[in-house]
# Entry
Amino acid sequence: MKIRKCISCGRYTFREECPECHSQTYYPKPPRFSLTDKYGKYRRKLKLVKLYGDKDH
# Structure
């Protein structure tokens, strides 16, 4: 049994249908590893904004 996530409301459940909004659920997987990380620059910038606020870094 694996944990699933609702497409609509984002709630986690073990069911194929969300008990809250009755939408389909899916298996949440992390993004595939790649040496040429296309979105790494944006993830790091977002992390800095979350830590220090919206300043130029």
In short: DSSP finds one helix and three strands in the chain. Residues 40-52 form the longest helix (13 residues). Residues 1-29 form one domain. The radius of gyration is 16 Å.
